[in-house]
Amino acid sequence: MAETVVLRVGMSCQGCVGAVKRVLGKMEGVDSFDVDIKEQKVTVKGNVTPDAVLQTVSKTGKKTSFWEAGPAASESATPASS
């Protein structure tokens, strides 16, 4: 079953991007992936589980979390006081 997993990954240089691409390229079940250093976003498509993708990318030593769990999501979810 095809799954799309979106992660927030702390990448500061092309070396970081290369490390993420290297581990995803070796991961079983990955059909395709996109690494966006500007957005700090990694999108993975394939027969994978979100937890497996998170664990694999975490092996690079980069700060990794699910995209929805990032600081931007929690800030926008804060209710405005009336």
Automatic annotation (TrEMBL):
PROSITE patterns: HMA_2 (PS50846). Pfam families: HMA. Transmembrane segments: none annotated. Residues 2-65 form the HMA domain. Keywords: Metal-binding. The keyword Metal-binding applies. GO terms for molecular function: metal ion binding. This is HMA domain-containing protein.
